[in-house]
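User: Structure please.
Assistant: Input sequence and predicted structure:
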Amino acid sequence: MVPPTSGSPPNASAASAPQRSPSAARPQATASRGAVIDPVRVLRQNWKKILWWTLGGAVFTVVFQFGAQFIYPVYSGQVVLRLRPQLGEATEIFGENATQEETVARLAQTEAQQMVMRDVLVKAISSKDVLKTSWHEYYLDDNGQFIVDEAVDDLEDEISSGHRRGTQFFALYWKAHVAGDVPVVLNAITTTYLDILNAESDRKFNGIKQVFVKKQNELDQQIDSMKAAIRRFITEEGIPAFEENAQQSQRGLEELQRLIAETTMDLSLVKSQRGQLDAKLQGRLEPSKDDIQKAEMDPALMQLNRDLNDLTIALQSKKARFGPQHPEVRYAEETLASARAQKDKALDEIVQRDLNGQFKSVTDRQGGLEDLLKKQTGDFELERKRIEELASRVAELEAMKERQERLQEERGIVAKTVGELDLARSREDSVPVEVAQRALTPRELFFPNWKVVLPGMWVLVILLGVGLIFLKEFMDQRVRFASELAALASGRVLGVIPDQKDDPTAPAKVSFVVREAPQSALAESLRQVSTNIIKNLADQGGSVVGVFSALPGAGATAVITNLASSALVIGKRVLVVDANFRRPGLCAAFGLAEGGLGLGDVLAGKRTIADVVQRSPSGVDVVGAGQSHMIELLDTLRMTEVMNGMREQYDLVLIDTAPMAIAAESMAVANRIDGSVLVVRAMRDQRGLVGRLIGQLTAQRGRFIGAVLNRPEQTAGGYYRKNAEMASKYSAETSAEPTVATPASGAT
């Protein structure tokens, strides 16, 4: 291949380079930079450490069991108590159990708390039996005196209680270092509490009984006084004769009420009739059919009706004889009309006469009924007052009798209550708590219990070891696996390049491994990276790609040598450019001498691109760093023009830059290229640093193509090694012997 003979046009402008707005430079937000932990991978990777923790935990658990058994034995015991049914009445054979689980639990907790109250504990541990225990010796002062307050303080903290769900039982639990002390202390507390309950029950019952006995005596006095008052009232008022008169007066009063009701009804009807008649007379209401029919029965009106009938017949006869226009006919019609008018006038007069007669009759009846109603009402009021006076005396007597009956009923209730109190106090279940099972001497150790301690401590030690392993894994901030890099690069991982020692074909070196050992796992991984980059450039456009690294030694230069070799094989015009002015080395990697003319000289305007391009032995065109190493030249318009010239003459331009963490000029290069690739050294580069650099590259005009993970260590089970072996085996099967990759036709 003949190198280009001319540089970029002198009037090339920065506008000819592909530009992207800052907003377009951020198509995706950087993914979460937190640690991505695969539990299965961590366990497989550290299985030897987990095995040692398992064996060590077993030994430690056995030693702990026997040591604690002799040094710190603990015995536990319990006293079980039962909530007695609540008495409804003293005569009930069985009390009523509380059915609500919440109620039972609340009652049990209340009783348990009362049992361990300070005054109860003070009385309990002061008993002779407790003073004989080994437990009380822990609380003796220098003079051999029992320190009660200190012992009670510890008991309040140590004693626990619990309610057995679905039952009326609850228990107190306590632990001691001597088995014989447990039942003594627990039973002493129980006995003391029951004695206090019995004394409290006696005091309560006696106090309540005194109240009811006093009330009973007061009721007896009131009943005697009421009986005497009733006897005096009966004698003074003559109650027996009065009751007979009162009954007769009551019947008479009821009869008067009935008569008044009838008279009132009749008067109402008469008033209604009188109002209708008055309306007819005044012309406000037309006479009814009955009024007209009654008037027509009058003899004079009947004669007029007969005359009208005769005149009507005569008129019809004349019309038939002479015709309707004859004078005789007209005269007959006038006569008939006059007769009809006379008849109507007579009918009105007779109706008015009849209505006047009815009105006078009704008016007279109304007056009579009003007089009668007035008399009946007066008689009723007199009788009512007399009966009310009589009834008030009877009511007074009845009230006195009812008062006496109520006093007697109340006295009966009080007397019954006094009897029930005596009966209830005599019953054993008057105390709400009873002992279901006293505390017994424990026969087994509570701690250390080998059934719990051996497996429990063993599991705890294993969990501790596993937890420390995961803690170390979580605290490790290095990028170690492709999944972690994918999380930082939003999934844009171009490939994973295994470590040289994990390649089963054992290539001599990584540089140019694609050309020198094409069937190795390293070569296959690098070809995948090259394919992904070329595909991205074909889809998104552009040809200038910057290969960046976070720190020195990441392998960016080795990646460039293989990317260039891989692209050259498929017929691409490839140029590699050393933009690392701080520590140039790209020429040496391609087998060329360092220190010649290069990029720095082009940027300084001393040379053109054609003057500095060198052909490497592998057939790749190389532009070294040059003799002018002014870093500021990388961030100039001239740099953009140079990139444009290279873009026009080559299919793929790979830019090698200084490490980004120590060289700020790398960002200037990233801002003038088409795409950027970040090479991350596994097991060394920190996640925070890598995430920050990916964010910075994403913010530049040159789009961030993706990241490459270089030299990850093999994990337990040989994940990368297995992949490498599979790739190598497949290549060996498809080719009998290794071949050396050669450039495509036209690429030399």
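The first helix runs from residue 39 to 45.
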